[in-house]
Amino acid sequence: MTNTSTKNKVLWAVATVLVLVYALFPVISILATSFKSPSDLTSGKFLPSGGTATTDNYEQILVGDAQGLFLSALRNSIGISVIATFIAVVLATLCAYAIARLDFPGKKLVLTTALAVSIFPVISIVTPLFNLWRTIGLYDTWLGLIIPYLSLTLPISIWTLAAFFRQIPWELEQAAQVDGATTWQAFRKAIVPLAAPGVFTTAIIAFFIAWNDFVYGISLTSTEAARPVPAALAFFTGASQFEAPTGAISAAAIIVTIPIVLLVLLFQRQIVSGLTSGAVKG
Amino acid sequence: MTSAIPARTTTASSGEPGPRIDPDGSTTKKARKQYSDRVRAERRLGWMLAGPAFVIMLLVTLYPILQAIYESLFKFRLTAPGEREFIGLGNYAVILSDQLWWEDLGRTVLITVITVIVELILGFALALVMHKALKSVRGLLRTAILVPYGIITVVSAFAWFYAFDINSGYINSWFSWVPGIDESTNWFAEAGTSLFVIMASEIWKTTPFISLLLLAGLAQVPDELSEAAKVDGATWWEQMRKVIIPNMKAAIMVAVLFRALDAFRIFDNVFIMTNGANGTEVLSLLAYRQSISRLEIGLGSAVSVLLFVCVLVICFVAIKLFKVDLAGSQGGK
Q1: What is the Cα–Cα distance from A50 to A71, expressed in whole angstroms?
Q2: Is B65 contained in some domain?
Q3: If you average pLDDT over residues A53-70, what whole number do you get?
Q4: Are B145 and B203 contacting, i.e. CB atoms less than 8 angstroms apart?
Q5: How many CA atoms lie within 13 A of A65 on its CB side?
Q6: What average pLDDT does range B56-76 have in this prediction?
Q7: Distance CA B247, CA B240 (A)
Q8: pLDDT on residue B147
Q9: Are B185 and B298 in contact (CB under 8 A)?
Q10: A81: closest CA among A261, A219, A205?
Q11: Which of A37, A39, A102 should be substituted to probe chain B, the one whose Cβ sees the most B Cβ atoms within 10 Å?
């Protein structure tokens, strides 16, 4: 008896370690690369050779000569993703509220449109936008990325929030009104606390998607004015033409991964429920 | 299922003239008038709330795709705007008679099929581990697999690229005992090995999503069913094949369709690792190269439209042939 349960425990420990290695190995791999010195890059080893680990790569992109390039890209990425997420979540909250609570013709049309938009090949949209943005002056601007980012963030926000809002017991609102609360009080005291986690979770998922964008980023920008981090990484050329930018790119990759890891650590449960409730429920 | 039931009751009750809101609806005529006023007001409010999101979605996708269809009918290069000329379906003829299109299409389909199959198997294994895991490690496991989900695809591409790269990589020295791999193995010099690394990166990054969808599907299979099968003496494999998998078919189908559509648009990994060199170009990259790099707006638009048509075909096949019900679970009516 004890034998099988020990065996079981070992099996579970092995499975857990395997999943952890699977999930984290590439991240640790690029983390290790980010601390390698230029001469150590070609060592063929996973870790920096003993004693040569260096923070030079981080210095180069944060305070050194690649600072302008990386920090402006970081500012663009944060600004554009946060604004696109905010707009999408506000619009999607109104839309999902209507879908979950009100009866109006075209409800299904709105949901189907959201689904259709989310499966749209981004590259099909980017050519006409590229052309149009150049004509009307939105090329290489924040707004020029925020607008197409809505095509990524809006549909998933609507689906996720509609699923969340359908689970809210809206009777509570009426119950509060019966107990003498005004409409606004009833909404604020009974509904907002229930809806807020869903809205917040949706915001995290939408932010991940905006943060991840690459196609719009490389196609609709050309300078540091609006180029986000993923696109900047792809065009980063290194300190001199004889030096591969491997170390600097790895360091930059780690810095833009930190917010993701923090959000995942803090809100694991919410993200999982948000991802699954929007997509599969039936 | 669980979410649809309360939704339906809420919408149904709010559409009817509820007794508590309409206390003096004793005369039917008056009641009907109030009813239709209320319905009209609700409809108006519904569209006022849902309208902005709906209009923006149409503006950012429907408008560009219509524009792309229009542009695709012209011979038009941005560097020579004066020579713009209507050529009907000429661009499509050029593309479809070019072997490059068919090669890229084949490669894209190959990547889609392989990654989706591997992800389905790997994702299912991950889902099973998470489903059965002890409470104490469940949170840890979910947190861990959300890291690849949340990480930027470009970062994933660089991580895999640097690991395999002939200069900065360590894979060659780690696996030098494998026949065919040594110090001088250049993974990115030929199509097969390049695509292997590209697909590895894609699979690593997107399997967590599929496994979470499958986990949600697993959670919906009633425990009693597999318990009953176990009592009847079914082996683990029989339980899987006869009880678990048939009961989560809907979840599997939705996960596969979503992932297939996503994999078909693969771009970031290929762009970072090879930029389409050595026979690794995919359809998205072809469209990008035509329109953004070469500024052949007409030709690029035609590729974009064809790519869009491919996505529609995949959807159509999935919905008609495999009866994947995407909207049914959410659409309400």
Answers
A1: 30
A2: no
A3: 83
A4: no
A5: 6
A6: 88
A7: 10
A8: 92
A9: no
A10: A205
A11: A102
C-alpha B288/C-alpha B276 separation (Å) is 11
Phi, psi values for residue B72, rounded to 5°? -70, -10
pLDDT category at A65 given cuts 50, 70, 90 is confident
- Of A15, A20, A117, which has the smallest distance from its Cβ to B61's Cβ? A117
| Both tokens assigned to A71 | 């920090």
Contact B243/A at CB under 8 A = no
Give B18 or A73, the one with higher predicted confidence. Answer: A73
Q: Is B125 on the interface with A (CB under 8 A)?
A: no
Closest C-alpha among B55, B223, B234, B36 to residue B132: B223
Domain-embedded: residue B74: no
CB contact under 8 Å between B45 and A98, yes or no, is: yes
Q: How many separate domains does chain B show?
A: 1
* Nearest CA distance, B230 vs chain A (angstrom): 18
pLDDT band, very low/low/confident/very high, at A2 (cuts 50, 70, 90): low
Interface pTM (ipTM) of the complex?
0.90
| CB contact (8 A) between residue A150 and residue B60 | yes
Q: Do B330 and A212 touch (CB under 8 A)?
A: no
Q: Which residues, numbered 23 to 82 in chain A, qualify as contacts with chain B under a Cβ-Cβ cut-off of 8 Å?
A: 23-24, 26-27, 29-30, 33, 36, 41-42, 44-46
Chain A residues whose CB is inside 8 A of the B171 CB are none
Q: Which amino acid is at A168?
A: I
Residue bearing the bigger pLDDT, B135 or A125:
A125
Retrieve residue B187's tokens.
């993974």
pLDDT tens track for B180-234: 888 888 888 888 899 999 999 999 999 998 998 888 888 888 878 778 887 888 7
Residue of A nearest to B264 (CA): A121
* CATH code of the domain containing B303: 1.10.3720.10
Dist CA B332 CA A95 (whole Å): 15
Cite the DSSP H helix spans in A102-139: 107-118, 122-136
For helices B297-321 and B249-264, the axis angle rounded to 10 degrees is 170
What does the alpha-carbon distance between residue A119 and residue B312 come to, in Å, rounded to a whole number?
9
Burial class from Cβ neighbours inside 10 Å (0-12, 13-18, 19+) for residue A76 reads: buried
Among B225, B219, B50, B56, CA closest to A147: B56
Beta strands in chain B (DSSP E): 74-75, 85-86
* Residue B241 belongs to some domain of the structure: yes
Q: Does B296 reside within a domain?
A: yes
Please tell me the distance from the alpha carbon of residue B283 to that of residue A83, in angstroms, as a whole number.
Answer: 31
Answer whether B155 sits within 8 Å of A230, measured CB to CB. yes
Q: What is the mean pLDDT of residues B295-304?
A: 89
Is the alpha carbon torsion for A127, A133, A134, A140 positive or negative? negative
**B chain contacts of residue A212, beta-carbon cutoff 8 Å:** 152-153
Determine the structural domain holding residue B278 and report its residue range. 99-321
How many other CB atoms are there within 10 angstroms of residue A67's CB atom? 13
CATH assignment, A57-279:
1.10.3720.10
CA pair distance B89, B92, nearest whole angstrom = 5
B136 touches chain A (CB under 8 A): no
Say which residue, B251 or B263, is predicted with more confidence.
B263
**B198: its two tokens:** 């590209």
pTM of the model: 0.86
Closest Cα in chain A to B209? A275
Which pLDDT belongs to residue B328?
A: 47
Residue B86 bridge partners (DSSP): B74
